[in-house]
TrEMBL record:
Keyword annotations: Hydrolase, Protease, Thiol protease
Domain NlpC/P60 residue range list: 144-259
UniProt keyword Iron-sulfur, yes or no: no
Entry's Gene Ontology BP terms: proteolysis
An example molecular function term from Gene Ontology annotations: cysteine-type peptidase activity
PANTHER family: MUREIN DD-ENDOPEPTIDASE MEPH-RELATED
Pfam family, one: SH3_16
InterPro entries, per database record: NLP_P60_dom, Papain-like_cys_pep_sf, Peptidase_C40, SH3_16
Family from the record: Belongs to the peptidase C40 family.
Organism (species): Deinococcus irradiatisoli
Protein name: Peptidase
Amino acid sequence: MLDRLDGGFRFIEPRAAWNGAGRLSLRARPEALSPQVSEALPGQALEVVLQRPDGWAWLRTLDDRYLGYARVEGLLTEAPKNTLAVTALRGHVYAAPKITAPILAEVCLGALVTRRDEAPVTDKHRRWLPVGEQGWLQEVCAAPLSDADPAELALRFIGTPYVWGGRSAWGLDCSGLTQVVFGAFGRSLPRDADMQQAALRPVEQPQRGDLAFFEGHVGLMLDGRRMVHANATAMAVSVDTLGEGEYGERLQADLLGFGRWTG
């Protein structure tokens, strides 16, 4: 009976896992220098599909069913309990409830952190929440989002570096931006641009919050012409106008259509 695959991977009963405190690169091949295809955020639910003895595994993200290779050493075997969703674009977990304390971890919009069963601490008018085994997170980093406007949230990412396969405010790609922004409001999108286009209702006349689709690219419309998107031309999240300027003209020529979230 075949129980192993080429590359040393063996068949296992798929098992649940959860990403730990750091962002986890999912790669195209089981190699450290292989391209990143996506990224699991802290606390994200996963499934281990295949594994080999050296620690590499083929993983599936449970929310969008995306596949990639990663090492399993930092994965959790039990679901995090009493979690807080990070709503700040970026933040840090500190070793003590003070901004001068050592930084233990980076967090980002969409990350989940475990709330410890301890009382919050206020220091110099800053309220700190106990998270993880020994960390502290400023409460403002987990404050509820005030307005369900994906376009407004996407604009907060302006200047964020473009990173292929990234899904965080430390660096992301085009579909990572749209997925994370929509996800912040409970709107689940697939991982890649073509998948997102297939999931949305096509529309002829775009409005604020619609997505614009191109070959291998996606952006979020601010109005009928302006679009915020993570792109490798600016190597950052930027705003461009369809049909305006050299880049805008290229975007207009490559436009495949628009899609709207309908719930």
